[in-house]
Design a protein that fits this description.
The complex is a heterodimer of chains A (about 100) and B (about 475). Chain A has helices spanning about 5-15, 25-40, 75; strands at about 85, 85-90. Chain A is mainly α and about 100 residues long. In chain A, a hairpin with a 2-residue loop joins β1 (about 85) and β2 (about 85-90). Chain A is flat and about 55 Å long. By secondary structure, chain B is an alpha/beta fold. Chain B has an 11-stranded mixed sheet, with helices on both faces. In chain B, a hairpin with a 2-residue loop joins β10 (about 440-445) and β11. Chain B has a domain at about 1-255: Amidase signature (AS) domain (Amidase signature (AS) enzymes). The chains are: A mainly alpha (about 100), B alpha/beta (about 475). The interface between A and B is large, with 53 and 73 residues.
Protein backbone atom coordinates (compact mmCIF):
# COMPACT_ATOMS: atom_id res chain seq x y z
CA UNK A 1 0.00 0.00 0.00
CA UNK A 2 1.36 3.47 -0.79
CA UNK A 3 2.69 5.60 2.03
CA UNK A 4 1.08 8.99 2.61
CA UNK A 5 3.08 12.13 3.39
CA UNK A 6 1.54 12.16 6.85
CA UNK A 7 2.83 8.62 7.45
CA UNK A 8 6.27 9.69 6.26
CA UNK A 9 6.27 12.53 8.83
CA UNK A 10 5.20 10.10 11.58
CA UNK A 11 7.88 7.52 10.69
CA UNK A 12 10.59 10.19 10.41
CA UNK A 13 9.68 11.37 13.91
CA UNK A 14 9.88 7.80 15.25
CA UNK A 15 13.23 7.28 13.49
CA UNK A 16 14.56 10.66 14.71
CA UNK A 17 15.47 11.77 11.20
CA UNK A 18 14.78 15.40 10.28
CA UNK A 19 12.93 16.06 7.03
CA UNK A 20 14.28 18.64 4.60
CA UNK A 21 12.38 20.16 1.68
CA UNK A 22 11.59 17.43 -0.86
CA UNK A 23 12.18 14.56 1.59
CA UNK A 24 8.48 13.82 2.19
CA UNK A 25 7.75 13.30 -1.51
CA UNK A 26 11.01 11.35 -1.94
CA UNK A 27 10.34 8.84 0.85
CA UNK A 28 6.64 8.54 0.02
CA UNK A 29 7.46 7.57 -3.56
CA UNK A 30 10.49 5.36 -2.87
CA UNK A 31 9.10 3.51 0.13
CA UNK A 32 5.77 2.94 -1.64
CA UNK A 33 7.66 1.36 -4.56
CA UNK A 34 9.56 -1.00 -2.25
CA UNK A 35 6.44 -1.83 -0.21
CA UNK A 36 4.61 -2.72 -3.41
CA UNK A 37 7.17 -5.49 -3.94
CA UNK A 38 7.09 -6.48 -0.26
CA UNK A 39 3.30 -6.81 -0.28
CA UNK A 40 3.71 -10.10 -2.16
CA UNK A 41 4.43 -11.62 1.28
CA UNK A 42 0.69 -11.45 1.93
CA UNK A 43 0.17 -14.18 -0.74
CA UNK A 44 2.01 -16.74 1.42
CA UNK A 45 -0.20 -18.78 3.79
CA UNK A 46 1.54 -18.70 7.19
CA UNK A 47 -1.21 -19.41 9.75
CA UNK A 48 0.52 -22.40 11.34
CA UNK A 49 4.10 -21.27 10.72
CA UNK A 50 6.20 -20.12 13.69
CA UNK A 51 8.34 -17.00 13.17
CA UNK A 52 12.14 -17.27 12.88
CA UNK A 53 13.92 -14.40 14.62
CA UNK A 54 17.38 -15.92 14.34
CA UNK A 55 19.10 -19.13 13.29
CA UNK A 56 21.57 -19.46 16.15
CA UNK A 57 21.94 -22.88 17.70
CA UNK A 58 23.17 -21.63 21.09
CA UNK A 59 20.66 -20.14 23.49
CA UNK A 60 21.29 -18.00 26.53
CA UNK A 61 24.95 -18.88 27.06
CA UNK A 62 26.21 -17.91 30.49
CA UNK A 63 29.67 -17.07 31.77
CA UNK A 64 31.13 -16.68 35.23
CA UNK A 65 30.26 -13.29 36.69
CA UNK A 66 33.84 -12.21 37.25
CA UNK A 67 34.90 -8.55 37.09
CA UNK A 68 37.32 -7.76 34.29
CA UNK A 69 38.84 -4.55 33.02
CA UNK A 70 36.71 -2.35 30.78
CA UNK A 71 37.32 0.96 29.08
CA UNK A 72 38.67 3.79 31.19
CA UNK A 73 36.58 6.95 31.44
CA UNK A 74 39.14 8.66 29.21
CA UNK A 75 38.87 5.92 26.55
CA UNK A 76 35.07 5.94 26.68
CA UNK A 77 34.98 9.70 26.14
CA UNK A 78 37.79 9.85 23.57
CA UNK A 79 35.39 9.95 20.61
CA UNK A 80 32.76 12.19 22.23
CA UNK A 81 31.80 15.24 20.15
CA UNK A 82 31.44 17.15 23.42
CA UNK A 83 32.49 16.14 26.93
CA UNK A 84 32.73 18.00 30.20
CA UNK A 85 33.98 16.90 33.64
CA UNK A 86 34.02 13.24 32.59
CA UNK A 87 30.49 13.29 31.14
CA UNK A 88 29.05 13.34 27.63
CA UNK A 89 27.68 16.83 27.10
CA UNK A 90 24.28 17.14 25.37
CA UNK A 91 21.86 20.01 24.71
CA UNK A 92 19.19 20.65 27.33
CA UNK A 93 16.59 17.93 27.70
CA UNK A 94 14.05 20.04 29.64
CA UNK A 95 13.14 23.69 29.46
CA UNK A 96 14.43 25.71 32.40
CA UNK A 97 11.72 26.30 34.98
CA UNK B 1 58.70 -6.92 -8.24
CA UNK B 2 55.11 -6.85 -9.44
CA UNK B 3 54.92 -10.67 -9.23
CA UNK B 4 55.03 -10.37 -5.42
CA UNK B 5 51.55 -8.88 -5.64
CA UNK B 6 50.20 -11.95 -7.45
CA UNK B 7 51.19 -14.61 -4.90
CA UNK B 8 48.91 -16.82 -2.84
CA UNK B 9 49.47 -17.28 0.90
CA UNK B 10 51.12 -20.67 0.38
CA UNK B 11 53.51 -19.26 -2.25
CA UNK B 12 54.34 -16.19 -0.17
CA UNK B 13 54.81 -18.21 3.02
CA UNK B 14 57.27 -20.51 1.22
CA UNK B 15 59.38 -17.54 0.07
CA UNK B 16 59.21 -15.91 3.52
CA UNK B 17 60.27 -19.10 5.32
CA UNK B 18 63.13 -19.65 2.85
CA UNK B 19 64.15 -16.01 3.56
CA UNK B 20 64.06 -15.39 -0.23
CA UNK B 21 61.97 -12.32 0.59
CA UNK B 22 61.23 -10.45 3.81
CA UNK B 23 57.81 -9.43 5.08
CA UNK B 24 58.91 -5.81 4.70
CA UNK B 25 59.75 -6.41 1.01
CA UNK B 26 56.39 -8.12 0.47
CA UNK B 27 54.51 -5.25 2.10
CA UNK B 28 56.56 -2.63 0.24
CA UNK B 29 55.75 -4.33 -3.09
CA UNK B 30 52.05 -4.05 -2.26
CA UNK B 31 52.33 -0.44 -1.11
CA UNK B 32 54.11 0.48 -4.37
CA UNK B 33 51.53 -1.38 -6.44
CA UNK B 34 48.74 0.41 -4.53
CA UNK B 35 50.36 3.75 -5.36
CA UNK B 36 50.17 2.83 -9.07
CA UNK B 37 46.66 1.38 -9.30
CA UNK B 38 44.58 2.73 -6.43
CA UNK B 39 44.18 6.23 -7.87
CA UNK B 40 42.06 4.47 -10.55
CA UNK B 41 40.48 1.65 -8.51
CA UNK B 42 39.89 3.61 -5.28
CA UNK B 43 39.54 0.43 -3.21
CA UNK B 44 40.97 2.00 -0.05
CA UNK B 45 39.50 4.71 2.14
CA UNK B 46 42.68 5.12 4.15
CA UNK B 47 46.06 3.51 4.70
CA UNK B 48 47.72 2.42 7.94
CA UNK B 49 51.49 2.96 7.44
CA UNK B 50 52.38 3.02 11.14
CA UNK B 51 50.60 -0.28 11.64
CA UNK B 52 51.97 -2.08 8.56
CA UNK B 53 55.53 -0.96 9.14
CA UNK B 54 55.42 -2.15 12.73
CA UNK B 55 53.61 -5.41 11.88
CA UNK B 56 56.02 -6.17 8.99
CA UNK B 57 59.04 -5.61 11.26
CA UNK B 58 57.51 -7.87 13.88
CA UNK B 59 56.85 -10.51 11.18
CA UNK B 60 60.47 -10.30 10.04
CA UNK B 61 61.70 -10.74 13.63
CA UNK B 62 59.57 -13.86 13.97
CA UNK B 63 60.61 -15.25 10.58
CA UNK B 64 64.28 -14.76 11.48
CA UNK B 65 63.71 -16.91 14.57
CA UNK B 66 61.81 -19.52 12.45
CA UNK B 67 58.61 -18.63 14.37
CA UNK B 68 55.34 -17.13 13.33
CA UNK B 69 51.78 -18.13 12.47
CA UNK B 70 50.02 -19.16 9.26
CA UNK B 71 49.65 -15.54 8.13
CA UNK B 72 53.01 -14.12 9.19
CA UNK B 73 53.88 -11.29 6.82
CA UNK B 74 50.71 -11.66 4.70
CA UNK B 75 49.29 -8.27 3.59
CA UNK B 76 45.60 -7.84 4.35
CA UNK B 77 42.98 -5.15 3.69
CA UNK B 78 40.12 -4.63 6.16
CA UNK B 79 36.59 -3.45 5.35
CA UNK B 80 35.61 -0.16 7.00
CA UNK B 81 33.07 -1.83 9.31
CA UNK B 82 35.58 -3.81 11.40
CA UNK B 83 37.01 -2.00 14.40
CA UNK B 84 40.79 -1.76 14.71
CA UNK B 85 42.10 0.01 17.79
CA UNK B 86 43.22 3.54 17.01
CA UNK B 87 42.50 3.22 13.25
CA UNK B 88 39.73 5.50 11.94
CA UNK B 89 36.73 3.22 11.23
CA UNK B 90 33.63 4.83 9.72
CA UNK B 91 31.37 2.13 8.18
CA UNK B 92 31.65 4.11 4.94
CA UNK B 93 29.60 6.87 6.60
CA UNK B 94 30.07 10.55 7.24
CA UNK B 95 28.28 10.10 10.56
CA UNK B 96 31.32 8.22 11.91
CA UNK B 97 34.01 10.39 10.34
CA UNK B 98 36.95 10.58 12.74
CA UNK B 99 35.84 7.65 14.92
CA UNK B 100 38.82 5.73 16.33
CA UNK B 101 37.73 2.51 18.05
CA UNK B 102 39.13 1.92 21.55
CA UNK B 103 39.54 -1.82 20.82
CA UNK B 104 40.18 -4.31 17.99
CA UNK B 105 37.43 -6.78 17.04
CA UNK B 106 37.96 -10.51 17.55
CA UNK B 107 38.22 -11.64 13.91
CA UNK B 108 40.79 -8.99 12.99
CA UNK B 109 42.65 -9.55 16.28
CA UNK B 110 43.00 -13.27 15.56
CA UNK B 111 44.47 -12.56 12.11
CA UNK B 112 46.91 -10.09 13.68
CA UNK B 113 47.87 -12.80 16.20
CA UNK B 114 48.68 -15.07 13.23
CA UNK B 115 50.97 -12.37 11.84
CA UNK B 116 48.84 -10.66 9.16
CA UNK B 117 49.98 -7.16 8.16
CA UNK B 118 47.21 -4.57 7.73
CA UNK B 119 47.67 -2.30 4.69
CA UNK B 120 44.59 -0.18 5.15
CA UNK B 121 40.83 0.22 5.37
CA UNK B 122 38.67 -0.58 2.34
CA UNK B 123 35.68 1.28 0.96
CA UNK B 124 32.14 -0.09 1.21
CA UNK B 125 28.53 0.91 0.90
CA UNK B 126 27.53 3.00 3.91
CA UNK B 127 26.85 0.66 6.88
CA UNK B 128 27.21 -2.21 4.37
CA UNK B 129 23.90 -1.32 2.73
CA UNK B 130 24.20 -1.73 -1.00
CA UNK B 131 25.38 -3.92 -3.85
CA UNK B 132 27.72 -1.60 -5.73
CA UNK B 133 29.80 0.43 -3.23
CA UNK B 134 28.20 3.52 -4.81
CA UNK B 135 26.47 4.20 -1.47
CA UNK B 136 29.82 4.93 0.19
CA UNK B 137 29.72 8.23 2.03
CA UNK B 138 33.16 9.03 0.54
CA UNK B 139 33.51 7.97 -3.13
CA UNK B 140 32.67 5.02 -5.39
CA UNK B 141 35.17 2.18 -5.99
CA UNK B 142 35.87 1.03 -9.54
CA UNK B 143 35.95 -2.55 -10.83
CA UNK B 144 39.58 -3.41 -11.73
CA UNK B 145 38.36 -5.38 -14.80
CA UNK B 146 36.54 -2.34 -16.21
CA UNK B 147 36.99 0.95 -14.40
CA UNK B 148 33.62 2.27 -15.64
CA UNK B 149 31.81 -0.49 -13.76
CA UNK B 150 31.01 -1.16 -10.10
CA UNK B 151 32.95 -3.70 -8.00
CA UNK B 152 29.74 -4.99 -6.43
CA UNK B 153 29.01 -4.43 -2.79
CA UNK B 154 28.79 -3.83 -0.09
CA UNK B 155 32.38 -5.12 0.43
CA UNK B 156 33.40 -3.72 -2.97
CA UNK B 157 36.66 -2.15 -1.79
CA UNK B 158 37.89 -5.45 -0.32
CA UNK B 159 36.97 -7.42 -3.47
CA UNK B 160 38.55 -4.82 -5.78
CA UNK B 161 41.74 -4.64 -3.67
CA UNK B 162 42.27 -8.41 -3.96
CA UNK B 163 41.30 -8.45 -7.67
CA UNK B 164 43.77 -5.65 -8.47
CA UNK B 165 46.65 -7.24 -6.52
CA UNK B 166 46.59 -4.43 -3.94
CA UNK B 167 46.19 -6.95 -1.10
CA UNK B 168 46.76 -10.69 -0.93
CA UNK B 169 43.68 -11.19 1.22
CA UNK B 170 40.89 -9.01 2.58
CA UNK B 171 38.03 -9.15 5.06
CA UNK B 172 34.45 -8.30 4.27
CA UNK B 173 31.03 -8.79 5.80
CA UNK B 174 27.99 -10.47 4.27
CA UNK B 175 24.43 -9.66 5.37
CA UNK B 176 22.62 -10.43 2.09
CA UNK B 177 25.49 -11.26 -0.27
CA UNK B 178 27.98 -8.49 0.47
CA UNK B 179 31.03 -10.80 0.27
CA UNK B 180 29.91 -13.30 -2.38
CA UNK B 181 28.44 -10.84 -4.91
CA UNK B 182 31.47 -8.48 -5.07
CA UNK B 183 33.78 -11.54 -5.14
CA UNK B 184 31.82 -12.82 -8.16
CA UNK B 185 31.84 -9.58 -10.16
CA UNK B 186 35.52 -8.87 -9.33
CA UNK B 187 36.68 -12.41 -10.18
CA UNK B 188 38.00 -13.45 -6.76
CA UNK B 189 37.04 -16.05 -4.15
CA UNK B 190 34.83 -14.86 -1.27
CA UNK B 191 33.15 -16.74 1.54
CA UNK B 192 30.33 -16.09 3.99
CA UNK B 193 30.60 -18.55 6.89
CA UNK B 194 27.73 -20.15 8.82
CA UNK B 195 26.03 -17.64 11.13
CA UNK B 196 27.92 -18.04 14.41
CA UNK B 197 31.16 -19.42 12.92
CA UNK B 198 33.08 -16.14 13.24
CA UNK B 199 32.68 -13.76 16.18
CA UNK B 200 30.97 -10.47 15.33
CA UNK B 201 32.59 -8.66 18.26
CA UNK B 202 33.98 -5.41 16.89
CA UNK B 203 31.81 -5.47 13.75
CA UNK B 204 29.70 -2.31 13.35
CA UNK B 205 26.27 -3.97 13.21
CA UNK B 206 23.86 -3.68 10.28
CA UNK B 207 21.40 -6.60 10.73
CA UNK B 208 22.50 -8.71 13.67
CA UNK B 209 20.64 -11.93 12.81
CA UNK B 210 22.21 -11.96 9.33
CA UNK B 211 25.70 -10.36 9.53
CA UNK B 212 28.81 -12.53 9.21
CA UNK B 213 32.48 -11.69 8.66
CA UNK B 214 34.34 -13.57 5.93
CA UNK B 215 37.46 -13.59 3.74
CA UNK B 216 38.37 -12.66 0.17
CA UNK B 217 41.40 -14.16 -1.59
CA UNK B 218 42.59 -15.32 -5.00
CA UNK B 219 42.44 -19.04 -4.20
CA UNK B 220 40.04 -21.33 -2.36
CA UNK B 221 42.89 -22.55 -0.16
CA UNK B 222 43.70 -19.00 0.96
CA UNK B 223 40.06 -18.37 1.84
CA UNK B 224 40.05 -21.61 3.88
CA UNK B 225 43.24 -20.61 5.73
CA UNK B 226 41.94 -17.17 6.67
CA UNK B 227 38.56 -18.53 7.74
CA UNK B 228 40.19 -21.21 9.88
CA UNK B 229 42.39 -18.58 11.54
CA UNK B 230 39.48 -16.37 12.63
CA UNK B 231 36.74 -18.96 13.31
CA UNK B 232 35.72 -20.31 16.67
CA UNK B 233 34.00 -19.44 19.91
CA UNK B 234 34.42 -16.01 21.42
CA UNK B 235 32.98 -15.23 24.87
CA UNK B 236 32.43 -11.66 23.63
CA UNK B 237 29.86 -12.78 21.01
CA UNK B 238 27.08 -14.84 22.59
CA UNK B 239 25.97 -16.09 19.16
CA UNK B 240 29.38 -17.55 18.30
CA UNK B 241 29.49 -21.34 18.34
CA UNK B 242 31.92 -23.61 20.16
CA UNK B 243 31.75 -26.31 17.49
CA UNK B 244 35.09 -27.78 16.33
CA UNK B 245 36.98 -25.62 13.84
CA UNK B 246 36.94 -28.22 11.06
CA UNK B 247 36.49 -26.02 8.00
CA UNK B 248 39.47 -27.55 6.14
CA UNK B 249 38.44 -31.17 6.73
CA UNK B 250 38.54 -33.26 3.48
CA UNK B 251 39.61 -30.11 1.61
CA UNK B 252 41.34 -31.97 -1.22
CA UNK B 253 39.08 -35.02 -1.46
CA UNK B 254 37.33 -33.93 -4.68
CA UNK B 255 33.63 -34.19 -5.60
CA UNK B 256 33.39 -37.78 -6.74
CA UNK B 257 30.08 -39.16 -5.48
CA UNK B 258 28.88 -35.85 -4.05
CA UNK B 259 25.35 -34.77 -4.91
CA UNK B 260 25.03 -31.17 -6.10
CA UNK B 261 21.55 -29.68 -6.09
CA UNK B 262 20.41 -27.29 -8.83
CA UNK B 263 17.41 -25.26 -7.62
CA UNK B 264 15.40 -24.51 -10.73
CA UNK B 265 14.19 -21.23 -9.21
CA UNK B 266 17.81 -19.98 -9.05
CA UNK B 267 18.28 -20.41 -12.81
CA UNK B 268 15.07 -18.61 -13.61
CA UNK B 269 15.34 -15.42 -11.54
CA UNK B 270 14.33 -12.01 -12.82
CA UNK B 271 17.13 -10.32 -14.74
CA UNK B 272 19.40 -13.40 -15.13
CA UNK B 273 21.79 -12.69 -18.00
CA UNK B 274 22.10 -15.45 -20.62
CA UNK B 275 25.91 -15.14 -20.56
CA UNK B 276 26.02 -15.67 -16.79
CA UNK B 277 23.63 -18.61 -17.05
CA UNK B 278 25.72 -20.29 -19.79
CA UNK B 279 29.01 -19.75 -17.91
CA UNK B 280 27.61 -21.20 -14.68
CA UNK B 281 26.06 -24.18 -16.48
CA UNK B 282 29.46 -24.95 -18.05
CA UNK B 283 31.04 -24.80 -14.58
CA UNK B 284 28.46 -27.25 -13.24
CA UNK B 285 29.23 -29.52 -16.21
CA UNK B 286 32.91 -29.47 -15.18
CA UNK B 287 31.93 -30.57 -11.65
CA UNK B 288 29.80 -33.36 -13.13
CA UNK B 289 32.74 -34.51 -15.24
CA UNK B 290 34.86 -34.49 -12.08
CA UNK B 291 32.49 -37.08 -10.61
CA UNK B 292 29.68 -35.12 -8.93
CA UNK B 293 26.09 -36.22 -9.34
CA UNK B 294 23.73 -33.42 -10.37
CA UNK B 295 20.23 -33.52 -8.85
CA UNK B 296 17.27 -31.20 -9.33
CA UNK B 297 16.01 -29.54 -6.17
CA UNK B 298 13.43 -26.86 -5.52
CA UNK B 299 13.36 -23.79 -3.27
CA UNK B 300 9.70 -22.86 -3.74
CA UNK B 301 9.75 -19.67 -1.63
CA UNK B 302 12.60 -18.05 -3.58
CA UNK B 303 10.23 -15.42 -5.01
CA UNK B 304 9.48 -14.20 -1.48
CA UNK B 305 13.08 -14.08 -0.23
CA UNK B 306 13.79 -10.53 -1.34
CA UNK B 307 10.58 -9.24 0.23
CA UNK B 308 11.25 -11.00 3.56
CA UNK B 309 14.84 -9.79 3.55
CA UNK B 310 13.85 -6.18 2.89
CA UNK B 311 11.67 -6.20 5.98
CA UNK B 312 13.97 -8.10 8.34
CA UNK B 313 17.26 -6.37 7.46
CA UNK B 314 15.87 -2.78 7.57
CA UNK B 315 13.97 -3.57 10.80
CA UNK B 316 17.18 -4.74 12.48
CA UNK B 317 19.13 -1.80 11.01
CA UNK B 318 16.61 0.74 12.28
CA UNK B 319 17.25 -0.59 15.78
CA UNK B 320 21.06 -1.00 15.47
CA UNK B 321 21.59 2.44 13.99
CA UNK B 322 19.66 4.18 16.76
CA UNK B 323 23.02 4.52 18.56
CA UNK B 324 24.24 7.11 16.05
CA UNK B 325 22.74 10.13 17.75
CA UNK B 326 25.54 12.69 17.99
CA UNK B 327 26.26 12.00 21.67
CA UNK B 328 28.93 9.30 21.94
CA UNK B 329 30.95 9.54 18.72
CA UNK B 330 31.04 10.88 15.21
CA UNK B 331 29.08 13.76 13.74
CA UNK B 332 27.09 15.98 16.07
CA UNK B 333 25.14 18.99 14.86
CA UNK B 334 25.64 21.53 17.67
CA UNK B 335 23.63 24.57 16.58
CA UNK B 336 20.31 23.23 17.95
CA UNK B 337 17.39 24.15 20.24
CA UNK B 338 17.13 20.92 22.21
CA UNK B 339 18.33 17.32 22.27
CA UNK B 340 15.64 15.91 19.94
CA UNK B 341 16.55 18.54 17.39
CA UNK B 342 20.20 17.50 17.77
CA UNK B 343 19.38 13.81 17.16
CA UNK B 344 17.20 14.53 14.15
CA UNK B 345 19.50 16.98 12.39
CA UNK B 346 22.62 14.91 13.12
CA UNK B 347 21.00 11.81 11.61
CA UNK B 348 19.61 13.67 8.58
CA UNK B 349 23.00 15.17 7.83
CA UNK B 350 25.23 12.21 8.77
CA UNK B 351 23.39 9.32 7.07
CA UNK B 352 23.27 8.97 3.28
CA UNK B 353 20.15 8.39 1.18
CA UNK B 354 20.13 4.57 1.22
CA UNK B 355 20.74 4.32 4.96
CA UNK B 356 17.95 6.80 5.71
CA UNK B 357 15.66 4.92 3.30
CA UNK B 358 16.29 1.64 5.12
CA UNK B 359 15.93 3.13 8.60
CA UNK B 360 12.60 4.63 7.52
CA UNK B 361 11.46 1.32 5.99
CA UNK B 362 12.48 -0.65 9.09
CA UNK B 363 10.91 1.85 11.46
CA UNK B 364 7.66 1.70 9.49
CA UNK B 365 7.66 -2.13 9.49
CA UNK B 366 8.10 -2.19 13.28
CA UNK B 367 5.63 0.60 14.05
CA UNK B 368 2.30 0.14 15.82
CA UNK B 369 -0.31 -1.31 13.49
CA UNK B 370 2.13 -2.67 10.93
CA UNK B 371 4.27 -5.08 13.00
CA UNK B 372 2.14 -8.17 12.31
CA UNK B 373 1.60 -7.41 8.63
CA UNK B 374 5.27 -6.83 7.90
CA UNK B 375 7.81 -7.90 10.51
CA UNK B 376 6.01 -10.94 11.92
CA UNK B 377 4.93 -12.01 8.43
CA UNK B 378 8.52 -11.73 7.15
CA UNK B 379 9.78 -13.82 10.08
CA UNK B 380 7.26 -16.55 9.24
CA UNK B 381 8.31 -16.51 5.59
CA UNK B 382 11.91 -16.77 6.85
CA UNK B 383 10.88 -20.06 8.49
CA UNK B 384 9.51 -21.32 5.17
CA UNK B 385 12.70 -20.30 3.34
CA UNK B 386 14.80 -22.13 5.92
CA UNK B 387 12.58 -25.22 5.54
CA UNK B 388 13.04 -25.06 1.74
CA UNK B 389 16.81 -25.38 2.28
CA UNK B 390 16.36 -28.18 4.84
CA UNK B 391 14.25 -30.12 2.33
CA UNK B 392 16.73 -29.49 -0.49
CA UNK B 393 19.70 -30.62 1.63
CA UNK B 394 17.88 -33.90 2.30
CA UNK B 395 18.43 -34.62 -1.40
CA UNK B 396 21.90 -33.12 -1.96
CA UNK B 397 25.20 -32.29 -0.23
CA UNK B 398 25.31 -28.71 -1.50
CA UNK B 399 23.50 -26.28 -3.77
CA UNK B 400 25.21 -24.72 -6.79
CA UNK B 401 24.10 -21.69 -8.80
CA UNK B 402 25.29 -18.35 -10.09
CA UNK B 403 26.32 -15.94 -7.32
CA UNK B 404 25.02 -12.82 -9.09
CA UNK B 405 22.47 -12.93 -11.92
CA UNK B 406 24.42 -10.18 -13.69
CA UNK B 407 28.04 -9.22 -14.38
CA UNK B 408 29.41 -5.94 -13.03
CA UNK B 409 27.14 -3.12 -14.23
CA UNK B 410 28.12 0.42 -15.24
CA UNK B 411 28.56 2.93 -12.42
CA UNK B 412 25.35 4.97 -12.02
CA UNK B 413 23.12 2.58 -13.97
CA UNK B 414 21.06 1.31 -11.02
CA UNK B 415 21.23 4.06 -8.41
CA UNK B 416 17.87 5.64 -9.29
CA UNK B 417 15.83 2.47 -8.73
CA UNK B 418 16.51 0.83 -5.35
CA UNK B 419 14.62 -2.34 -6.28
CA UNK B 420 16.84 -2.99 -9.32
CA UNK B 421 19.84 -2.75 -6.98
CA UNK B 422 18.23 -5.08 -4.42
CA UNK B 423 17.66 -7.71 -7.14
CA UNK B 424 21.47 -8.20 -7.34
CA UNK B 425 21.22 -10.13 -4.06
CA UNK B 426 18.38 -12.46 -5.00
CA UNK B 427 20.64 -15.57 -5.21
CA UNK B 428 22.67 -14.82 -2.09
CA UNK B 429 20.28 -13.50 0.57
CA UNK B 430 18.58 -16.88 1.10
CA UNK B 431 21.86 -18.11 2.56
CA UNK B 432 21.76 -15.30 5.12
CA UNK B 433 18.10 -15.85 6.05
CA UNK B 434 18.88 -19.55 6.65
CA UNK B 435 22.32 -18.94 8.23
CA UNK B 436 24.16 -21.10 5.66
CA UNK B 437 27.80 -21.00 4.61
CA UNK B 438 28.30 -19.94 1.00
CA UNK B 439 31.29 -19.39 -1.24
CA UNK B 440 31.71 -17.72 -4.63
CA UNK B 441 34.51 -18.89 -6.94
CA UNK B 442 35.44 -17.41 -10.32
CA UNK B 443 34.10 -19.67 -13.11
CA UNK B 444 34.87 -17.78 -16.32
CA UNK B 445 33.93 -14.60 -18.13
CA UNK B 446 30.84 -13.17 -19.81
CA UNK B 447 31.11 -9.99 -21.92
CA UNK B 448 34.75 -9.86 -20.80
CA UNK B 449 33.74 -9.65 -17.13
CA UNK B 450 34.07 -12.21 -14.31
CA UNK B 451 31.26 -14.62 -13.38
CA UNK B 452 31.02 -16.38 -10.01
CA UNK B 453 29.79 -19.87 -9.13
CA UNK B 454 28.07 -20.02 -5.74
CA UNK B 455 28.18 -23.12 -3.52
CA UNK B 456 25.78 -23.15 -0.54
CA UNK B 457 26.16 -25.88 2.09
CA UNK B 458 24.15 -26.88 5.17
CA UNK B 459 24.90 -24.99 8.40
CA UNK B 460 28.39 -25.77 9.79
CA UNK B 461 29.44 -27.51 6.56
CA UNK B 462 32.00 -24.94 5.37
CA UNK B 463 34.14 -28.03 4.73
CA UNK B 464 31.66 -29.17 2.05
CA UNK B 465 31.44 -25.75 0.37
CA UNK B 466 35.24 -25.35 0.39
CA UNK B 467 35.84 -28.90 -0.86
CA UNK B 468 33.49 -28.39 -3.83
CA UNK B 469 34.93 -24.96 -4.64
CA UNK B 470 38.43 -26.41 -4.45
CA UNK B 471 37.43 -29.34 -6.68
CA UNK B 472 36.04 -26.89 -9.23
CA UNK B 473 39.24 -24.84 -9.16
CA UNK B 474 41.34 -27.98 -9.78
CA UNK B 475 39.04 -29.55 -12.40
CA UNK B 476 38.47 -26.37 -14.42
CA UNK B 477 41.89 -24.80 -14.14
CA UNK B 478 40.06 -21.46 -13.74
CA UNK B 479 42.08 -19.37 -11.28
CA UNK B 480 41.43 -15.94 -9.88
CA UNK B 481 43.81 -13.69 -11.78
CA UNK B 482 45.05 -10.23 -10.92
CA UNK B 483 43.32 -7.73 -13.21
CA UNK B 484 45.74 -5.44 -14.99
CA UNK B 485 44.79 -1.85 -14.31
CA UNK B 486 46.01 0.61 -16.92
Amino acid sequence: MPLSREQVRHVAQLARIALEPGDEEFYAEQLSGILEHIDRLQEVPTDDIPPTAQVVEVSNPLREDVPRPGLTQEEALANAPAAVNGFFRVPSIQEEA
Amino acid sequence: MSELTELTIAEATRLLRLHSISATELVTAHVEHIARVDPQVKAFLRFTPELYEQQAEEADRKLKREQGGVLTGIPIAIKDVLCVKGVETTAGSQILRGFKPPYTGTAVGRLFDEGAVMLGVTNCDEFAMGSSTENSGYFPTHNPWDLDRVPGGSSGGSAAAVAAGEAMIALGTDTGGSIRQPAAVCGVVGMKPTYGRVSRYGLIAFASSLDQIGPFARSVEDVALVLEAMAGHDPLDATSSDRPNDVRRDFDKGVKGMRLGLPREYFDVEGMEPGVNATVRAAIKALEEAGAEIVDVTLPHTDYGLAAYYIIAPAECSSNLARFDGVKYGLSVQDVDNITDMYMRTRRQGFGTEVRRRIMLGTYALSTGYYDAYYLKAQKVRTLIKRDFDDAFAKCDAIVSATSPVVAFPIGSRTEDPLSMYLCDVLTLGGNLAGLPGISVPCGMSQGLPVGLQVLAPQWREDVALRIARAYEVASGVKAEVASVA
